[in-house]
Design a protein that fits this description.
Layout (H helix, E strand, L loop, with lengths): L25 H9 L7 H6 L5 H12 L2 H13 L4 H12 L6 E3 L4 E3 L4 E2 L8 H4 L2 H19 L2 H10 L1 H5 L5 H24 L4 E4 L2 E4 L22
Antiparallel strand pairs: 1-2, 2-3, 4-5
């Protein structure tokens, strides 16, 4: 459930000897701040490369059992520079990858892949919550914001679930701590399987991707294997 509160915008004046980016103003500063940073996440590196992208999509399609949903989550994770394994683990915990998932609370409703809360996203129409593309975009963008605000994955996931106030006040519920633990377990399982069955077949050097095996030796991705991942049972 997304309950993290919206952030406020802060502005600062540049001072002498500040780094070059500190003197940027308006749209320039925004664009510089939001520009995706270089990442060493192997899933993102392989997804962003034309030669290996299809295999990455197929890998996650086998886990999700939907090419559409897998492609959507990968696209949004890449745009917001979120580790895909974390995005998929969060979606599994929230909705079991079901775009139609719904959870009724006492005064609000959580809907869709990332269980967006009706109070947290009041401008979205009901049908928007069930649109996989829109839901993933808002959910992953919100996760990115929580991660940046918190400064760590554990605290960011806790904020995504319980909100900033309780996390900042050191009053995170036990249920949220368990929630974070499950997501990290799912993510570890995905990363381990990805490394074993896909990443090991590619060589990544300074962002360049090359196949580690000859075409004749390339193994077909066995879709039936991925659902056997213990963390997803």
């Amino acid at each position: 459930m997304v309950s993290c509160s919206s952030s406020s915008t802060a502005q600062t004046e540049a001072v002498q000897n500040d780094p070059p980016w500190a003197s940027l103003r308006g749209a320039e500063y925004r664009d510089a701040a939001l520009k995706p940073q270089t990442t060493s996440d192997p899933v993102l590196v392989l997804y962003r490369n034309d030669s290996s992208r299809e295999e990455v999509i197929s890998f996650f399609q086998a886990i999700v059992h939907s090419r559409e949903v897998a492609s959507i989550i990968l696209e949004q994770a890449s745009e917001f520079n979120v580790p895909p394994s974390l995005a998929f683990a969060l979606s599994w915990e929230e909705s079991r990858f079901d775009p139609r998932a719904v959870n009724w609370n006492s005064s609000s409703v959580d809907r869709g892949l990332f269980q967006l809360n009706s109070k947290s996203f009041p401008k979205l129409k009901e049908k928007d919550f069930y649109d996989p593309g829109l839901n993933a975009r808002y959910g992953i963008a919100h996760l990115r914001w929580c991660l940046d605000l918190a400064g760590s994955e554990v605290a960011g996931l806790a904020m995504y679930n319980a909100g900033t106030n309780r996390v900042n006040a050191d009053s995170t519920p036990r249920t949220t701590l368990d929630y974070v633990s499950r997501i990290q377990s799912y993510r570890s399982g995905i990363d381990a399987l990805f490394q074993k069955d896909l990443a090991a077949r590619w060589i990544i050097v300074d962002g360049d991707v090359k196949s580690a095996v000859g075409r004749g030796q390339e193994a077909k991705i066995a879709s039936a294997r991925f659902p056997l991942l213990k963390a997803f049972h």
